[in-house]
Amino acid sequence: MTNPSGNFNDKLDLAEKMLPLLGRLHREKNVVTSIFGHLLDNVTAIDIIKSHRFARRLLDEPLPLSETYPILECLVDMDISTVSIDIARLAQDFRDYDGELKDFLNEQLADVIGADADTTSTDVVLYGFGRIGRLLARILIAREGRGLGTKLRAVVVRKKGDDDIIKRASLLRRDSVHGQFNGTITIDHDNDIIWANGTPIQMIYSNDPATIDYTEYGIDNAIVVDNTGRWRDEEGLSQHLKSKGVARVVLTAPGKGDLLNVVYGINHKDITDDTTIITAASCTTNAITPVLKAMDDRYGVSYGHVETVHSFTNDQNLIDNFHSGDRRGRAATLNMVLTETGAAKAVSKALPEFEGKLTGNAIRVPTPDVSMAVLNLTLDKPAEAEEINTYLRNVSLRSVLRQQVGYIRSPEAVSTDFVGSTHAGVVDGMGTITQGNHAVVYVWYDNEFGYSNQVIRIVEEVAGSRPRVRPHRLELGEV
User: Fold this and answer.
1) Handedness of CA 216, 217, 222, 228 (dihedral sign)
2) 338 beta partners
3) Burial grade of 310 (CB within 10 A; 0-12, 13-18, 19 or more)
4) What whole-number distance in Å separates Cα of residue 304 and Cα of residue 321?
C-alpha cells in the first residue's frame, strides 16, 4: 500500500537536518523563520513536519521539506541579519522562477543583504504579573535570544508576603492552560531577581507607579506595560511617566478618553515619537478588527452584529456571590453568562469607517481560554461562502494581516485546538454562511496568548525593533 504522505522517515531525516540550520540562523543572524506564520523557533523535527502538513492543508497542495530545506542551507551562508523570513512563501514563489535558487534568494533578499544588525535594545517593565503579564514575560524572554531589541528588565507588583517571589516564579514556570515554561527558572531571593533562561528579571515591590526610580536598577527610557487594568485613562496612566527611567506606557486594555487605541496591523502606524501612552484595546477587538477590515475592503460592510462567546475571566466569581457587575456574580464555571462587550464599538477607534455600524454582546462560558466571535455582517454586495473563504485564506497566507488573521478548515476543530495561537483571530472556514449580501463569519481567538502577541507587536513597534519581513506581504487590494 502506498503512503500518500510519502516516506515518513525521509521527512524526519530532512527535518532533523533543518534543526541546526534553524539554530544558526536564530543565534548567529537574528533571523526569524516561519512556515506561513508558524514560527520555527525552539521546534522539534516533528514540529517541522507538522508545520509543513498544516501548510499543505491551507494550500490544497504539498509543501515538501525537500523544497524548504535547500532554502535554509542557502540562508545560512548569506550575509543577512534581523529579518523575518517565511520559507514557505519563498518555496512557493521559487517554483515559478527560471533560474538557480541562490540567484532567486539574492533577488528576494537584496535589500537586507549586508545590512547592519541592530544591536540596540529597549528596556521593558511589566507593571503587574497576572495572566497577561506572565504570558508577556514568556514571549519577551523567548524573543530576547533573537536580538530583536526588547529586553525584559523588571516586574512591578505589590508584595504579598515573604515568599512572594517564590510564588511569582512558580506561576511563571507552571500554567494550567499554556503548559510549562520552556526553559529554566531560578530565584535569587536576596536580590529579588527571577532568572529565566539566563535573563535576570528584577522584582520591584511598589504600590505607587509614580515614585519608582527605575534607574537605580540600571533601567532607563523604558516601556512600561501596565497589565493591571487599574488605570485606563490618561491621568491614571501618566503616573508611570512620573517615575524616573520611563519613556512610554502601553496598556493591555481598552483606553478611555482620547488615548490612542491600537490594534496592531490596522492602525499601529498612528503611533508617533510623541505618543507616550498607547492602549492595546481588548482581546476581542484585536480578534475581530483585522477580519472586519479585510471584509470591508473586499465587499464593503454596511452593518454588523458581533456576538462573542468568551471564556470566563478573573473578574467573575467562581461561586455565586455579590458582584458589582450584572450577572458576573454567578458561578463562572457552571453558567453561560450573558453580559456586555465594548469590543464592537471599540472597532471604530482603530477603523473610523465602522463608526455606528456595529453592535455587540457577549456570552461568558465555562472554559478557561479561547473564545469565539460570530460576525453577522450585511455586505454592500452579495458573496458566496467559498469566495469569502478563499479570500480570507489568502489574506492569512500572503497579506499584511497575515499575523493577525489565521484560517482553518477542519471538521473536528474545537476551542482547545487554538490554545497557543499567535494570531489575533483565526477564521473557521467551515462555519462561513452566506445568503445574498448577508454573511456570517466565525473567528476563534486565544484571548490570552493571541492577544499577548498583539501587545508585544505594539511594544516592538514602539521600541523600533520590529523585524523586516521577507518576502514582502501583499496589501489587501492585491490579495
Assistant:
1) negative
2) 363
3) buried
4) 35
Degrees (nearest 5) of the Cα angle 95, 32, 54? 55
Domains and CATH numbers, the chain: 8-108 (no CATH), 122-281+455-478 (3.40.50.720), 284-447 (3.30.360.10)
Q: What's the pLDDT tens digit per position in 382-421?
A: 999 999 999 999 999 999 999 999 999 999 999 999 999 9
What span, in angstroms and rounded, lies between the C-alpha atoms of 297 and 380? 11
**Cell digits for 409?**
478548515
Sheet holding 122-127, edge to edge: 185-188, 193-196, 199-205, 150-157, 122-127, 222-226, 246-251, 277-279, 260-261
CB atoms within 10 A of CB 248: 22
From 58, 132, 223, 283, the catalytic residue: 283
Instruction: Name which of 246, 164, 237 is nearest 212 in CA terms.
Output: 246
74 is catalytic: no
pLDDT for 57-93, tens place per residue?
Answer: 677 778 899 999 999 999 999 999 889 999 999 999 9
Give 368: exposed, middle or buried? Use CB within 10 Å, 0-12, 13-18, 19+. Answer: middle
